[in-house]
Amino acid sequence: MGLTAAGLLLTGGGSTRMGRDKALLEMDGETLAERAERVLCAVCDEVVEVGPGYTALPATREDPPGSGPLAALVAGADALDAEAVLLLAVDMPFVGTSLLRMIARYPGNDTVVPVAGGRLQVTCARYGIATLEQARRMSQGGSSPAPGLRDVVAASPHIRLEEAEWKTAGTSRSFLDVDTPDDLRHHGIGGHR
Fold it and tell me: What is the helix (H) or strand (E) element at residue 132, kind and residue range?
C-alpha cells in the first residue's frame, strides 16, 4: 500500500502567458480552481491551497509569493506536515479522481511522477519524504538560476509512472495543461470569473 498523501493545490502562478488568471477560468460551470479543489478533496482527507485563496480550502503562500512551484511545494508541505503530498497545479483541468487516486496510493514510499509524452509531469505527482527534504534544501540554496521541481525530482529517489500504467486510470488528455489563450480554444475551455 502506498503512502497516505495530503493534497496540495497550486493556484499562485503568474499566468503571464495566459494574460489572465488561470485559476478563475471556467470549464463546465466551475472555475479551474474549484474543479481542482473538488478532485483533490475526493482523494485526500486534508488539502491546502498554495495561492491567494481562490477556493474554500485553507490557504498558504510561498515566500515570496510567486516564487515558483518549488517554493510552493515546500510552503504547502510545511503547512500540511504530512509524510507525502499529492501536488496538483490548477492549470491541469483534465486530471480526474481515478488518476489522482492511483498516484496518491501507489505502492511504496517514494515520489511518484507520471510520464506523458516523454515528460515528467511534476505538477501532478506524489512527493514523498526524501523528495520533500531535498526540496527544502534546494529551495534555500540561493543558486542561480533557482532550481525547479524537475531538478528536485532528478536529485531524489522517484518512480516514473509510465503511460501504459497510468492510462488504466486516465486518458490521453489527462495531463494537458492550459497556459495560453490558444490552449483554451484548442481544449474548449470558456469564460473567466
Answer: helix 129-139
